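Box S1 | Example of a co-folding query
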Amino acid sequence: MLERIEEIRSEAGTAIEAAPGTAELEGLRVRLLGRKAELTTILRGIADLPQRERGKVGAAANRARQELEALLERRAADLDAAELEARLAVDRVDVTLPGAPARPVGHIHLITRTTRQIEDVMVGLGYRVVEGPEIEHDYYNFTALNHPPGHPARMLQDTFYVQSHPDVLLRTHTSPVQIRALEVQPPPIFMIVPGKVYRRDSDATHSPMFHQVEGLAIGEGITMADLQGTLSEMLQAIFGEGREARMRPHFFPFTEPSVEFDVSCFQCEGSGALGDGSRCNLCKGIGWIEVGGAGMVDPTVLGFVESSGYDPERVQGFAFGMGVERIAMLRHGVPDLRRFFDNDVRVLGQFR
Ligand code: DAH
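Box S1 (continued) | Returned holo structure for 3,4-dihydroxyphenylalanine
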């Protein structure tokens, strides 16, 4: 009996070492130590052996069992490690390889690019870029900007209001950020505000959401001549050297006097006529193209932020605002503003 145990032990040891994989090893475990295994049968039969053999056979059989368990465990660990190595080798991926097919690199949207270009010019002139909320209070969007209660812009047909809060709305312009900035920063202030604005408007040149850039300069002794010079500098940077700025009288509730400003036409060089004598289609023969609104900040507006240091008797300044889509359309000859937001890459890809 002891010899048989020794035989089982040594044959099993060889088989375990030779097991080629974890699945085969598991099969071996069942065959060597399972309920029907020979060693198990021997162990179970020990009680029936003659008294004097029991001790020796029992000890030998138990030792053999423990040894085989240890061998199985070690072999399993080795096989696991080897199999993991092999799987990793097969699965190896070079994450630095380009995708298949290689994807073209994207680019910034024309509206963002135009906005940043305007920011760059103005930052160069010493202005700071400031942002404000798109969901705004009636107070900042209208009241503090001197819009009287019956002003048409306040009407339901022009502005998106928040239903549950009648004095909360989607800002209709970037001008409310003027008030928010003046509340927290004492004079002097030189800032521009890029951002989205919302109106109930939709056609080829109007969209319910569009972008504006607002400018504001307030300090001592700032005049309309400074406004003219600033606009001229900015428009040259946007539309090209040699462009001129022109102001025409207009009305805005928050500026006095108010103007609309134009840039000299960059297609006909301001002459209104093309080389062949025909009327310039871009400026409609006028020689000037409207760009935005501006003016000297109304003292009434400064009155709303007087406690932050804006004494209308001491400081004054100018503000301006313009639509980014309009500028991009003019510069790139885009006929319909809605194309900017259709997300058709054939259109957007033209403006890298
Ligand atoms: N907020 C005006 C609008 O959306 C544009 C504007 C006009 C802004 C005159 C200004 C300004 O700062 O001074 O129509």
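The CA atoms of residues 306 and 323 lie 29 Å apart. The mean pLDDT is 93.
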